[in-house]
Amino acid sequence: MAFILFFAFSLLLQGALGELICEELPTDLCSFSIASSGKRCLLEKCASTDGTRELQCKTSEVVVDGMSAWIETEQCIHACGVDRNSIGISSDSLLDPQFTAQLCSQACYQNCPNIIDLYFNLASAEGGFLPDLCANPHRAMSELLSSGAASGPISSSVSALSPVYSDSSADYAPAPAPFY
């Protein structure tokens, strides 16, 4: 009985302390947020009871190392050129030179670790390296295109990615990975 009371109290206390749960976030704060569990939140289209499609915030299986209970600031959303209404998680935007320039800008790259971590891992999943993409966008872009990048949303297998170094990056020293 004591264990049940302790367990029930701990659940209530966690909620009272402000645990961030993706499914409880409004849709306009969902994208680029991280739950208290360390998993990324993502916006999904779901069928409602009346047959229409509505947006819902869901917890993904993508785990972020070292970050939790994070709602991205409007300053970073603007500095990095991301869209708070983006559905799912996709690497497609890495193929857009204007987006990449904004992502690699000092305002984003040095001040927005959550967004940089996300796109660092997305680039890695596509066989790229975000610092290379920032240092030499034309060359890195052609490598991404030849690797079949941006074929669709990522799966939960991306959660433990590490940077990928290719032989073609031997011509120049890679930039350091993002610091937190």
Automatic annotation (TrEMBL):
Signal peptide bounds: 1-18
Name of this chain's protein: PAR1 protein
Keyword Transmembrane on entry: no
Keywords: Signal
Any Pfam family hit: PAR1
Domain of life: Eukaryota
UniProt feature coiled coil, ranges: none
Species for this entry: Vitis rotundifolia (Muscadine grape)
Lineage, opening ranks: Eukaryota, Viridiplantae, Streptophyta, Embryophyta, Tracheophyta
Keyword match Nucleus: no
InterPro entries in alphabetical order: PAR1
